[in-house]
Amino acid sequence: MHRLILYSTTACTLCDQALDLLFATPAVAGMQLEVLDVATDDTLMEHYGARIPVLRLGEAELAAPFDAKVLADFLASALAQ
């Protein structure tokens, strides 16, 4: 099973939109999705804070903003690696 990680935080409109987009994307069905709040970890905040939301699949990362087409291309590329 593939594991997607969405680096996010509360009260983040882009993060909410990214999560909605993930739920609406058929390619995500069957994948494990973990949402990590960067505000709860200093290291995550330092690395991702200015770029959230960031989606990670394996070693590949996709930073906001992204739409359905960009997300689909990212997933296809990351899964092919």
Write the layout of secondary structure elements.
Blueprint: E1 3-8, H1 13-23, E2 32-37, H2 42-48, E3 54-57, E4 60-63, H3 68-80
Parallel strand pairs: 1-2
Antiparallel strand pairs: 1-3, 3-4
Which terms summarize this structure?
81 residues; alpha+beta; Glutaredoxin; 4-stranded mixed beta sheet; 3 helices; 38% helix
Please count the helical segments. Answer: 3
Distance between the termini: 15 Å
Provide the structure class: alpha+beta
What would the average pLDDT be, to the nearest integer?
Answer: 94
Helix and strand run: EHEHEEH
CATH-defined topology: Glutaredoxin
Shape: globular
CATH superfamily: Glutaredoxin
Provide the β-strand percentage band. 15-25%
Q: What is the radius of gyration computed over CA atoms, rounded to a whole number of angstroms?
A: 12 Å
Can you describe what's shown?
This protein has 81 residues and is α+β, with helices and mostly antiparallel strands. It has a single domain, classed as 3-Layer(aba) Sandwich (Glutaredoxin). The chain is built from three helices and four strands. The radius of gyration is 12 Å and the shape is globular.
